[in-house]
C-alpha cells in the first residue's frame, strides 16, 4: 500500500503521519471534498460532514471520478493497480450529517460557507465535543483566523489551512500561524500539509493572507483600466499573458474564480485594511447583480460554451497592435500586484521566499513578484512607481519605505548582487 500511495507522500514525514492519522472535513462542497480526497490518497482515514445529504452524495461521486483520473495517470499501464488505488482510497472516506460522530479525530478542517458567524458557531461546538488533542483548522480564504477562533479554548491548537481550488491539483497550501498557536501545532500543520503533497508557506493572520492579498490589487486595477476605457478586456488579458508570462489574464482569472467571489474578497479586504485600492468597483457590482458570475453561470466578462461538461471560452481574438499598446497600459495592474514590500515584507507577515512561492504555485506566476523586482531592478521599479503616482495620484503607487531603503543602499537586485535577495551568497 505504501507504494500505491507513495506519489502523494513525496514530501511526507513520520512526524506528521504519527500525529495525524484521522481527519474530519466539515463541508462537503468543492473545497471540502478536495481536501478529503488528498488526505485519503495519503493513507489517512477521513470523514466528511455536511448537513445536506445530497452534498455528501455528490462529494463521494466527485471524489471517485477524480480518483479514477488520478489512477489513470499514475498507473496507466497497470489496470489492477488502478482499480486497487481507487478502491483503497475510497474505503478510507466516510460521510455523515452528524458532526458529533466525527469529532474524535486528530485534525478537523472546516470548509463551510465563507461567513464569520457560522464558522464561529461550528468551532465553538467542536471545542466542547472534541478530544483535547484534536487540532482545529479553517480553510477560510479571507476572514480573520483569530476572529473565527475567538470563542474556543484551544487557541494553541487552532490555525488556518488555506487550500486552493482545485485542491487535488493546486500544490500550494497557506498555513496561517496565529500568535496563540503553539510551535507543536505549527509543525504538525506544516508536516501534515506536506504529507498530502502540498508545498506549504507560512503567513500571519493578515487580511487576505498572501495570494488573495496580492491578487486583489491586480484584479482591481485591471477592472479599472477596462472601466475607464484605457484598454479592452481582451487586450489586457493578452498583455498580461504575453508581457508578464501569466497563464491567464485577469479577466479570464476572474471568470474562473467567480465574479461574486472576487467581489466578496475585495469587500473583505477593503473593510479590514481601509486601503482605497480595494474600494468598490461599479462594473463588478453590476455584473454580479445581473448574475453574470463567470464560468459557473456561462457568462462573465466572456461567454462560455459547454463541451462535454467543460466550459470553453468563446470569443474573437484581438489584433497585434492593440496587444503591444496594452503592454504599457497594463503595467499598472502588474505593479499593483507587485507591491508586497509594504503589504507583507515590512510587517514580517510572510517571508520573501514564501511570498514568491505562493504567487508561483497559487497564482501561476512564472516568477514571484519579489524575484521579478530583483530581476528588473529595484531602482527601475522605484522610478516606474514614482511616475505612475505622479500621473495618477493613485495611493497604490505611493512611496514604499522598504523599496526606498534598498535603493538608497545601492541594493538594486541581480545587477548589484543584492536586492530583496542576496545573490552574492549563491556564488
TrEMBL record:
Location within or outside the cell: Mitochondrion matrix
Gene3D superfamilies xrefs: N-(1-d-carboxylethyl)-l-norvaline Dehydrogenase, domain 2, NAD(P)-binding Rossmann-like Domain
SUPFAM superfamilies for the chain: 6-phosphogluconate dehydrogenase C-terminal domain-like, NAD(P)-binding Rossmann-fold domains
Major subcellular location class: mitochondrion
Ranges of residues in domain 3-hydroxyacyl-CoA dehydrogenase C-terminal: 208-304, 342-423
Pathway annotation: Lipid metabolism; fatty acid beta-oxidation
UniProt name for this protein: 3-hydroxyacyl-CoA dehydrogenase
Species annotation: Eumeta variegata (Bagworm moth)
Top-level taxonomy: Eukaryota, Metazoa, Ecdysozoa, Arthropoda, Hexapoda
Amino acid at each position: 500500500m505504501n507504494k500505491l500511495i507513495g506519489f502523494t507522500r513525496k514530501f511526507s514525514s513520520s512526524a506528521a503521519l504519527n500525529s495525524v492519522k484521522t481527519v474530519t472535513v466539515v463541508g462537503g462542497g468543492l473545497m471540502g471534498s478536495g481536501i478529503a480526497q488528498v488526505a485519503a490518497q495519503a493513507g489517512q482515514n477521513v470523514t466528511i460532514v455536511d448537513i445536506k445529504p445530497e452534498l455528501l452524495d455528490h462529494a463521494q461521486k466527485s471524489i471517485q471520478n477524480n480518483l479514477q483520473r488520478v489512477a489513470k495517470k499514475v498507473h496507466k499501464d497497470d489496470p489492477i493497480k488502478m482499480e486497487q488505488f481507487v478502491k483503497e482510497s475510497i474505503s478510507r472516506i466516510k460521510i455523515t450529517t452528524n458532526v458529533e460522530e466525527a469529532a474524535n479525530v486528530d485534525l478537523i478542517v472546516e470548509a463551510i460557507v465563507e461567513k464569520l458567524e457560522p464558522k464561529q458557531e461550528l468551532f465553538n461546538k467542536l471545542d466542547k465535543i472534541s478530544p483535547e488533542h484534536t487540532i482545529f483548522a479553517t480553510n477560510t480564504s479571507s476572514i480573520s483566523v483569530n476572529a473565527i477562533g475567538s470563542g474556543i479554548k484551544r487557541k494553541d491548537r487552532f490555525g488556518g489551512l488555506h487550500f486552493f481550488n482545485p485542491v487535488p491539483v493546486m500544490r500550494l497550501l497557506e498555513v496561517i500561524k496565529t500568535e496563540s498557536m503553539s510551535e507543536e501545532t505549527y509543525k504538525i500543520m506544516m508536516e501534515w500539509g506536506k504529507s498530502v503533497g502540498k508545498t506549504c508557506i507560512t503567513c500571519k493572520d493578515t487580511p487576505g493572507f498572501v495570494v488573495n492579498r496580492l491578487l486583489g490589487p491586480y484584479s482591481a486595477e485591471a477592472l479599472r483600466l477596462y472601466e475607464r476605457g484605457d484598454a479592452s478586456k481582451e487586450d489586457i488579458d493578452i498583455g498580461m499573458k504575453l508581457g508578464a508570462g501569466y497563464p491567464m489574464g485577469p479577466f479570464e482569472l476572474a471568470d474562473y474564480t467567480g465574479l461574486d467571489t472576487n467581489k466578496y474578497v475585495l469587500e473583505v479586504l477593503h473593510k479590514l485594511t481601509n486601503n482605497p485600492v480595494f474600494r468598490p468597483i461599479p462594473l463588478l457590482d453590476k455584473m454580479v447583480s445581473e448574475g453574470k458570475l463567470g464560468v459557473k453561470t456561462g457568462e462573465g466578462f466572456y461567454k462560455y460554451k459547454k463541451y462535454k461538461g467543460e466550459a470553453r471560452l468563446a470569443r474573437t481574438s484581438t489584433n497585434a497592435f492593440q496587444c503591444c499598446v496594452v503592454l504599457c497600459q497594463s503595467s499598472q495592474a502588474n505593479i499593483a500586484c507587485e507591491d508586497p514590500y509594504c503589504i507583507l515584507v515590512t510587517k514580517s507577515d510572510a517571508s520573501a521566499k514564501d511570498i514568491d512561492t505562493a504567487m508561483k504555485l497559487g497564482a501561476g506566476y512564472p516568477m514571484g513578484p519579489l524575484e521579478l523586482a530583483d530581476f528588473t531592478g529595484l531602482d527601475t521599479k522605484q522610478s516606474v512607481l514614482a511616475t505612475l503616482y505622479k500621473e495618477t495620484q493613485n495611493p497604490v503607487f505611493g512611496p514604499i519605505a522598504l523599496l526606498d531603503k534598498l535603493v538608497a543602499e545601492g541594493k538594486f537586485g541581480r545587477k548589484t548582487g543584492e536586492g530583496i535577495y542576496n545573490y552574492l551568497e549563491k556564488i
